[in-house]
């Protein structure tokens, strides 16, 4: 399908789709906390393939597969292969908690996933249980990260949500661990979807320097919202990413759109507007009708997110951040 480029209500071009494949998760992270009774997955493999073809026809070039926890889908490698084979899609990325990565890293790489983000909020097993629940297995996650390093992904990033009183004392260690595994550490401000107290990005940078990480400016940019600096410590060096959704707005150059595990389009993670796409798919809507619904939803996207104090936000579960 040939169509005009996809733009939001502020004229920002949308080239990046984040597609959630499930609301289910094997962790119970305090800052996200998906429902333990998430039910069955609404989006089928065929649904995912059609949605990606639709968005690719409107100019989307990058797709990130998220959850919940996407590795709970047994057909994940097949879905990834479908996405990678879609004309117009240049890059397939995946975000995971790493629990099943040791067995899936190589199959996912063969399927066409080229970029991988793994959540790793702490290097302490006992702290991981407090943050992510009893099901989180620290040794399995580390084995998964090692497997990912061997699988040949073009990019490996370790996502760290910084929660005051939990993990802010080990940010330097997490940097050094990431660099030692050929990965980029990314420090993410806690957003108001769950429990915990955030640590502002400026303070995170100060903590890193106090913990032995020298930081210098770097203008590296990727597809997403992260800003980067270059760091060095203990003979190791590399990029450090920062996502300061609350204190360092990145909305002005947003290029993203989301489809949640319920099949609803969400033009903004920090917004409240949803456009149900699955009923249209189930009713046999044409690609043109689906495109009209998508464009109408995007036109309602505001100048910036609505994640301020006291905001009544839609749940994070099933959207994948």
Mean pLDDT: 90
Uncertain spans = none
CATH-defined superfamily: Aldolase class I
Q: Pairing-aware structural class of the strands and helices?
A: alpha/beta
Count of helices?
9
What is the end-to-end distance?
A: 29 Å
Helicity range of the residues? 25-40%
CATH architecture tag: Alpha-Beta Barrel
Remind me, CATH topology?
TIM Barrel
Tell me the strand order in the biggest sheet: 7-8-9-6-5-4-3-2-1-10-11-12
Number of structural domains? 1
Describe how the helices and strands are arranged:
Blueprint: E1 16-20, H1 45-57, E2 62-66, H2 76-84, E3 91-96, H3 101-111, E4 115-119, H4 125-132, H5 138-151, E5 155-162, H6 171-180, E6 184-189, H7 201-210, E7 214-217, E8 227-233, E9 236-243, E10 256-259, E11 264-266, E12 275-276, H8 278-282, H9 287-299
Helix pairs in contact: 1-2, 2-3, 3-5
Report what the structure shows.
- With 321 residues, the chain is of the alpha/beta class.
- It has one domain: TIM Barrel (Alpha-Beta Barrel).
- It contains nine helices and twelve strands.
- A twelve-stranded mixed β-sheet has the order 7-8-9-6-5-4-3-2-1-10-11-12.
- Helix 3 packs parallel to helix 5.
- The longest helix has 14 residues, at 138-151.
- The chain is globular and about 55 Å long.
- The mean pLDDT is 90.
Short description:
Helix content is 29%, strand content 20%.
From the structure above, extract its key features.
321 residues, alpha/beta, TIM Barrel, twelve-stranded mixed beta sheet, 9 helices, 12 strands, globular
């Amino acid at each position: 399908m040939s169509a005009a480029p996809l733009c939001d209500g502020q004229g920002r071009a949308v080239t990046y789709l984040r597609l959630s494949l499930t609301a289910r998760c094997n962790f119970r992270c305090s800052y996200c906390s998906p429902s333990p009774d998430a039910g069955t997955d609404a989006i089928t493999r065929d649904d995912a393939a059609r949605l990606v073809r639709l968005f690719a026809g409107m100019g989307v070039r990058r797709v990130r597969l998220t959850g919940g926890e996407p590795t709970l889908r047994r057909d994940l490698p097949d879905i990834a292969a479908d996405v990678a084979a879609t004309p117009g899609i240049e890059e397939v990325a995946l975000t995971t908690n790493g629990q099943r990565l040791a067995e899936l890293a190589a199959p996912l790489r063969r399927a066409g996933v080229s970029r991988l983000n793994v959540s790793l909020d702490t290097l302490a097993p006992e702290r991981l249980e407090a943050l992510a629940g009893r099901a989180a297995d620290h040794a399995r996650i580390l084995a998964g990260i090692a497997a990912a390093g061997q699988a040949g992904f073009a990019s490996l990033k370790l996502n760290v949500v910084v929660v005051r009183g939990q993990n802010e004392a080990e940010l330097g260690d997490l940097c050094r661990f990431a660099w030692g595994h050929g990965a980029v550490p990314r420090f993410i401000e806690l957003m108001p979807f769950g429990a915990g107290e955030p640590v502002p990005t400026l303070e995170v940078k100060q903590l890193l320097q106090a913990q032995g990480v020298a930081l210098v400016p770097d203008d590296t940019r990727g597809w997403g919202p992260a800003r980067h600096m270059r760091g060095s410590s203990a003979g190791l060096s590399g990029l450090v990413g920062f996502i300061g959704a609350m204190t360092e707005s990145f909305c002005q150059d947003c290029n993203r759109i989301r489809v949640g595990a319920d099949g609803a389009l969400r033009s903004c993670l920090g917004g409240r507007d949803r456009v149900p796409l699955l009923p249209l798919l189930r009713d046999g809507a044409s690609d043109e009708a689906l495109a009209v619904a998508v464009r109408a939803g995007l036109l309602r996207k505001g100048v910036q997110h609505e994640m301020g104090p006291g905001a009544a936000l839609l749940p994070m579960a099933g959207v994948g951040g």
